[in-house]
Amino acid sequence: MDVILLNSKNGKGRSLRLGPRQVFAAIALLAVAPVAMTVFVMTGLGLGATESGNITFVENWQTEIQAQKKVVAKAQRSADEHLRALTVKVAEVEARMIRLDALGEHLVHVAKLNKGEFDFSQSSAIGGPEDLNELGDVYQKPEFANALDDMAGTLLEREQQLDILESMLVNRNIKGGAYLTGRPIQKGWLSSHYGHRTDPFTGKLAWHKGVDFAGKENSPVISVGSGVITWSGERYGYGNMVEVSHGDGYVTRYGHNKENLVKVGDTVKKGQEIAKMGTTGRSTGHHVHFEVFLNGKTMDPKKYIYRRERT
Hints:
Order of helices and strands: EEHHHEEEEEEEEEEEEEH
CATH superfamily of the largest domain: Glucose Permease (Domain IIA)
CATH topology of the largest domain: Glucose Permease (Domain IIA)
Low-confidence stretches: 45-49, 124-136
Strand content: 15-25%
Structural class: alpha+beta
Number of helices: 4
């Protein structure tokens, strides 16, 4: 290959012959020169990606990735904890539903009512229009959310049936005997009043929503009115507890019993022994914790303890 070099002053040219190797070297030089120049300039300006810079860059990314992994792991743990809590709550609701169904079936049997009218073994008959979203499509809830909604609906329906059934049973079997009066014991003394008091366990001021009657172990605990047993068993804080529904919104509770003598669904008469005095649950000695509710609100039991008997 011949290359002609021109002199800019006199315009004379000179011929230079290049072999194949020289041509290839020249082409390679022309190709590499721009890249080399760019690297040189960037290095001079402090913008070059040096080996140490690459290492630092990679280390920073690794640190960031590790931090993100920790965030994801924390979120996963939180989600697992919430899921476990939800699972426990669902199990509690299912247990409550089973208890309500059993209570309902027992009350239907005791009251000798038409089972077809109060059938606690069948699912509720429900219906209604589909729920549409903003786009007019049918809204699709997660499967577990639908299951929870179904359970909540069934639970509400069961409770409504029990309320009606309980009222029918109370009106049929106890009539005027639901009038509350007297003490929940035969022998003993009032050891703690209703209202604010010093908590015997914490020493702090606390609200006491019942009254306490102290006495001897195994002393009779009696119902202050006729009614239907709606709870008989352990309950947090109460120990062994009996709950009696008297109709017209009245409910009484008898806590810390050594032994309960009645079961859910039983009907009891005023003055009937329902338990033996004990000190189970959150208790400092043998006594009965007595509460009175009216439409779900606690009342001062003394109003009923010192009430005159109906004539």
